[in-house]
Amino acid sequence: MMVPMSSYCVFCEIIARREPATILYEDDNVIVFRNRLNWVPVMLLAVPKQHMEQSELWTSEVITKVAKAAAEQGAAHCAGGFRLLSNFGYDAMQSQPHAHVHIVGGTFLGEYA
Amino acid sequence: MMVPMSSYCVFCEIIARREPATILYEDDNVIVFRNRLNWVPVMLLAVPKQHMEQSELWTSEVITKVAKAAAEQGAAHCAGGFRLLSNFGYDAMQSQPHAHVHIVGGTFLGEYA
Question: Which end of chain B has the least Cβ crowding within 10 Å, N or C?
Fold first, then answer.
């Protein structure tokens, strides 16, 4: 389901170049930029350019494009390994409605749960 | 790239029903079963039936099938939200070569890195 862009979305603003971001990769469908957080040395976000919810990304063909960009950028920036993840809802601390895959690495990450 | 099944793979054994597992979902391409770990209340694994490496899963069309099953099983078993993730290499503590997406939830998960 398309989510109407009736409210402010920081990822849509970054895609439209109305908010700053360090962009590492971009094609017609996907953008990868640095997260503003710095909990670990590498924190990137792979984001579909079309505004959609997490569940739409993960259950549609769009995931192939976002997943490929995420895996390739993880390998390019994290020689020792990396974790790809998406958060859904409160228990996972999802903070942005616009779908995204986190790329984290650059240090030993420890257990995943 | 196909990885020849020259060595023991516990996920291939589960798919072949030679190792036990609690299977929650299965189709021609994907299987979802409970992780043997119990760090959080819900720990599931979404696995392509074909033996392949993480990087092949995430850069091929196979990810659409695994991602959809993972998102649907997460929503079905984790009312409060869930995290989908894949670990690549040492820094992320990847322990199985056979590609897989973790589904974790059933409690407040905290930060993701």
Answer: N
Average pLDDT of the residues of chain B: 95
CB-nearest to A80 from B61, B91, B110 is B91
Q: What is the DSSP letter of A77?
A: H
Distance, CA of B51 to CA of B57 (rounded, Å): 10
Backbone angles phi, psi at A83, to 5 degrees: -120, 135
Query: pLDDT for A17-76, tens place per residue?
Result: 999 999 999 999 999 999 999 999 999 999 999 999 999 999 999 999 999 999 999 999
Q: Best of B43, B56, B85 to disrupt the A interface by mutation (most A CBs within 10 Å)?
A: B85
Contacts of B94 in chain A (CB under 8 A): 81
Contact B93 A113 (CB under 8 A): no
Contact B82, B72 (CB under 8 A): no
pLDDT (tens digit per residue) in B59-99: 999 999 999 999 999 999 999 999 999 999 999 999 999 99
Chain A residues close to B36, C-beta within 8 Å: none
Helix axis angle, A62-77 relative to B62-77, nearest 10°? 100
Q: Do B80 and A64 touch (CB under 8 A)?
A: no
Size of interface A-B (CB pairs under 8 A): 148
A100 is a catalytic site residue: yes
Return d(Cα B37, Cα B55) in angstroms, integer.
23
Instruction: Tokens 């996907």: give the residue.
Output: A30
